[in-house]
Write a structure and sequence with these properties.
Elements lengths: L4 E8 L2 E12 L9 E4 L3 H16 L9 E7 L11 H11 L11 E4 L1 E2 L5 E2 L4 H10 L4 E4 L4 H4 L6 E3 L4 H8 L29 H13 L3 E4 L6 H7 L9 H13 L16 E2 L7 H5 L9 H4 L4 E4 L7 H5 L2 H6 L1 E5 L4 E5 L3 E6 L16 H9 L3 H5 L3 E4 L11 H26 L13 H4 L12 H8 L5 H17 L7 H12 L5
Parallel strand pairs: 3-4, 5-8, 8-9, 10-15, 10-16, 11-12, 12-15
Antiparallel strand pairs: 1-2, 2-4, 6-7, 13-14
Bound molecules: zinc ion.
The site of zinc ion has 6 residues, from loops.
Length: 511
């Protein structure tokens, strides 16, 4: 019996753990007594692995041993839901019984599900798993062919992708060589539509710029022809490119959802855009459940989550967004574990002003009550978190930008970037983790250190006194005013900034 240890990676949320798999044998007292025990995994997962490994070996003309087998996975990974340990379990058995030499596995991790026919099958999350392996000092990853491109995104890793167990056995015996997977040549860096196409829509462009600069959630209300989707999907193009660490984080989330499987694959270095449909379940929005992967909310991390036709969504589904938006992460509790995914995104809600949603040139048939009730379907706590309200009309569309507009789009992105830097530098002084103005709680904005002069906040103070806005609304107005000042690189918001912030918050002029 040779060295029977193999290595795989267990994923829990975005965190990968190096797992050692060991196989040992005992002669059974009788044929009846012959069994396989797997320790270190939840029972149902262990059973599924055992069934697949047995079938895969038998169908690859590799004989499963006539002994009692004990597989030990350490550290114990009872929260593991995936099947990525299959290959490591099979190879541990094969090498322990001397079916294959293990010399070529030094410094390698094995990461694939096994098909009953012995084929290597894809697993979600190959990118973060191989990233974790690289960090732990491993130099080779053995994965399924359709996981090879994303695994090869991890710098410094040799990725081998045999198509089946027999192919891997032949390589371990030194009978064949496997060609290391190459990183695909880059795909376009930013596949999303450009801000510059928002032809002659200065007001909407301004609102998007403020949302991007301060991280303020946004509500767009307008008729079907108002191109609300076109506006929302252009927001990522003025968000700053992701840092190296953010790129790895966002790419990991998309890998865990299985988005990078097969085909050509690049790191995601730009703010993502997710637009789930209103028929979506809470689980698909939040993540977890059968697929085990992150939902739309986490996939929009560092980018934009667009909720179109917001009143058409089931209320309990949208309500699931509240806590994660507040904490900046999604927590999903399963039977054996708690999974976390980061979820810091800009939320953009959109709606028609009424249920009949009149097309251009036709009149609305709804009563005043129907109109009020329609937007009233949205839960108050959710609307409270939306800083900016913008009415969009159908007259302005999207068209190819001319040179001037391209320049102004470039400068919008530059202003957003600079405003974010100014805000981050200011809030760093507090020692808190706030980076964007929308991160800063109202209490801090109203504190002696950051309070604005009474003449600057005169309008907002009046609205609060007359109860036209809530205290929370007042705080959001202060936060938006700081963003407006940052966009102009001013040290402090003026009364004009606060007044403009009031209009952005309410969505209509106050005078
Ligand atoms: Zn109507």
């Amino acid at each position: 019996m040779g060295d029977s240890r193999t290595t795989t990676i267990g994923m829990l949320g975005t965190a990968g753990t190096v797992l050692t798999v060991e196989a040992s044998f005992a002669a059974p007292a009788s044929d009846h007594d012959r069994q396989v025990r797997v320790s270190g995994l939840a029972d149902n997962i262990a059973n599924q692995i055992q069934v697949r490994v047995r079938a895969a070996m038998a169908n690859s003309a590799l004989h499963f041993p006539h002994q009692s087998v004990t597989i030990t996975i350490s550290p114990a990974a009872h929260g593991l839901t995936g099947s990525a340990a299959d290959l490591a379990v099979a190879v541990a058995i094969m090498s322990a019984t001397g079916m294959v030499p293990a010399g070529r596995l030094t410094n390698a991790v094995l990461l694939a599900e096994l098909g009953l026919d012995g084929s290597l099958r894809v697993v979600p999350g190959a990118f973060p798993a191989v990233t974790a392996a690289r960090k732990a000092g491993f130099g080779t990853a053995i994965v399924a062919p359709d996981n090879a491109a994303e695994a090869a995104l991890v710098a410094g890793m040799t990725v081998l992708a045999p198509s089946n167990l027999s192919g891997l056995a032949a390589w371990l015996h030194g009978q064949t060589e496997l060609e290391p997977a190459r990183r695909n040549p880059g795909t376009p860096a930013h596949p999303l539509p450009d801000f510059a196409d928002l032809h002659a829509r200065p007001r909407e462009r301004r609102v998007l710029e403020v949302a991007a600069a301060g991280g303020h959630h946004l509500f767009l209300v307008g008729p079907p022809a108002a191109a609300k989707t076109a506006l929302a999907e252009r927001l990522p193009s003025i968000l700053p490119p992701l840092s190296e660490a953010e790129t790895v984080e966002v790419t990991a989330l998309h890998s865990l959802r299985g988005r990078l499987i097969g085909g050509s694959t690049e790191l995601i270095g730009h703010a993502p855009f997710e637009a789930p449909h209103h028929s979506m379940t809470a689980q698909a929005l939040i993540g977890g459940g059968h697929s085990g992967g992150p939902g739309s909310l986490a996939l929009a991390h560092r980018g934009v989550l667009f909720i179109d036709e917001a009143p058409e969504w089931r209320r309990h589904v949208l309500d699931t967004l509240l806590r994660p938006l507040e904490r900046g992460e999604v927590l999903v509790r399963n039977a054996n574990s708690t999974v976390r995914w980061p979820a810091r995104c800009l939320l953009v809600l959109a709606s028609t002003p009424c249920p009949c949603a009149p097309s251009p040139g036709t009149e609305c048939r709804c009563s005043a009550g129907e109109r009020r009730r329609y937007l009233g379907r949205l839960a108050r706590p959710l609307l409270d978190r939306i800083d900016l309200h913008c009415e969009v009309d159908a007259s302005s569309g999207v068209a190819q930008a001319d040179w001037l507009e391209l320049q102004s789009a470039r400068s919008a992105a530059a202003r957003v970037r600079r405003a974010r830097e100014i805000a981050a530098a200011r809030w760093r002084l507090t020692g808190e983790s706030w980076r964007l103005n929308s991160d800063v709680p109202g209490q801090a904005l109203r504190s002696a250190r950051w309070r604005l002069p009474a003449k600057a906040t005169k309008t907002a103070d009046g609205l609060l006194r007359w109860e036209r806005i809530t205290v929370r609304g007042y705080d959001r107005i202060l936060s938006i005013a700081w963003t407006l000042a940052d966009l102009r690189a001013q040290a402090q918001p003026t009364s004009d900034d606060v007044d403009a912030a009031v209009e952005l918050r309410l969505g209509y002029p106050i005078h």
